[in-house]
Amino acid sequence: MLLYANLQLAALKQELEESKQSMLESEKKLKFKEETAAAAMAARDAAEKSLKLADLRSSRLRDRVEELTHQLEDIENREDSKGQNRPRYVCWPWQWLGMDFVGFQQRPATQQEASNEMELSEPLL
C-alpha cells in the first residue's frame, strides 16, 4: 500500500510539473500576444499621425498651387492686355545658331553672327 501511495504521489508530482510547464508556456504566449497587440496599436497610431501630416501637407501644397496658378493667370492677363504676344520660353542655342522656332521673328544676321554660325557648324578636327 505504501508502494501504491508513492506511485500515486509520483504520478501527481509529474502531472503537477507538466501543468506548471503548460502554464508557463501559456503565460509566455499571452505575454507575446499582449506585446504584439501593443506594437500593432502603436503602429496604427503612428500611421494615423503620418496620414494626418500627409493630408495637411497636401492641403498646403494644393493651396500654394492654386495661389501660384492665380498669379500666373493674372500675369498672363496683364501681358495679353498690353498686346505682347511673345513666346514665354526661348531655348538659347537655337537663337544663336540662327534657327527659327515658333513665334520668334528672326532678325537679319550681321557678318559677325554669320561667321560665328559657320564656326559652330564646322566639325572639330
TrEMBL record:
- Give coiled-coil spans as residue ranges: 2-85
Give the InterPro entries listed for this entry: At3g49055-like
Keywords, A to Z? Answer: Coiled coil
Give the matching PANTHER family. Answer: OS08G0559800 PROTEIN (PTHR34937), PARAMYOSIN (PTHR34937:SF1)
Q: Any idea what this protein is called?
A: Uncharacterized protein
Task: Provide the species name.
Answer: Vigna mungo (Black gram)
